[in-house]
Amino acid sequence: MMPDLGKYAEAVLSAYGVSLLLLVLLIVWTLRQGRRARRALQEVERRRAPDA
Predict the structure, then answer these.
(1) Greatest C-alpha distance within the chain
(2) Is residue 10's pLDDT more than 80?
(3) Which of 22, 26, 29, 48 is such that its CA lies 20 to 30 A from the CA of 37?
(4) Four-point Cα dihedral 23, 25, 28, 30, nearest 10
């Protein structure tokens, strides 16, 4: 159920495609940065924990 975009179909669909690709890349990058930060925090906490 796609509207008729006429001569602009290629431009509109490619803009949607690029936007979707950028969103996916941003999500992947954010998740990787989150994992990296979590590991760094765990390492700091491990070093600061008193030896038991």
Answers:
(1) 71
(2) yes
(3) 22
(4) -70
15 three-class SS: helix
C-alpha 33/C-alpha 27 separation (Å) is 10
The one-letter amino acid at 2:
M
What are the Cα distances from residue 46, in Å, to 27, 36, 39, 49? 28, 15, 10, 5
- Global pTM value: 0.73
Percent of residues, the chain, with pLDDT higher than 90? 81
